[in-house]
Amino acid sequence: MPRPPPMQGRYGPANERDSCGMGFVAHIKGERSNGIIRQGLQILASLDHRGGVGADPSLGDGAGCLIQLTADAVAGEFGEVCEARAIEFLEKGWVTVLASDAHDVDTRPPRMAPGLEVASAILGSKAAQRLVDETPRRIVYGS
User: Fold this and answer.
1) How sure is the predictor about 20, in pLDDT bands with cuts at 50, 70 and 90?
2) Which of 21, 34, 102, 120 could form a disulfide with 50 if both were Cys (CB 3.0 to 4.6 A apart)?
3) Any idea where the domains of the chain sit in the sequence?
4) How far apart are CA 32 and CA 29, in angstroms?
5) Is 20 a residue of the active site?
6) Helix 125-132 crosses helix 113-123 at what angle (to 10 degrees)?
7) Measured between alpha carbons, how far is 129 from 140 in angstroms, rounded to an integer?
């Protein structure tokens, strides 16, 4: 197995894992686009060689799409249409992470409470809190 590259920027070789069949799509400049979702779905459709597929195809292997929802969207800060879609995603269990849309403490400070309150009313407080604490921690640090 080849050696991982040295430490550089945010990359650290200690976090290197074997990830055959893994895909990741993001817009490097943070521009919003439903093209990201389309590309992610294409990755899923193209990952036929995933290691877990052959074990029991009827059960799947955990491959899927992680969706982060902005707390302000849930709280209606981006308008009624966005709020309705955000609530629909929560109700259908499609949301992986609930996060703030913070950019900095002065012009766009982190606001979680209103969105977390709505998510708690829909999912229950423990499940909503998991979207804010446990799940993001597991994504970053592993199970």
Assistant:
1) low
2) 21
3) 21-61, 66-143
4) 9
5) yes
6) 130
7) 17
User: Which tokens sit at 124?
Assistant: 């229950």
Residues 6+ apart with CB under 8 A from 68: 95, 96, 97, 98, 99
pLDDT in tens, 42-62: 776 666 555 444 445 555 555
pLDDT tens per residue across span 86-125 = 999 999 998 999 999 887 788 878 889 999 999 999 999 9
pTM of the entire predicted model: 0.61
SS3 of the chain:
CCCCCCCECCECHHHCCCCCCCCCCCCCCCCCCCHHHHHHHHHHHHCCCCCCCCCCCCCCCCCCCCCEEEHHHHCCCCCHHHHHHHHHHHHCCCCCEEECCCCECCCECCCCHHHHHHHHHHHCHHHHHHHHCHHHHHHHHCC
Active-site residue, selected from the candidate residues 2, 6, 18, 20? 20
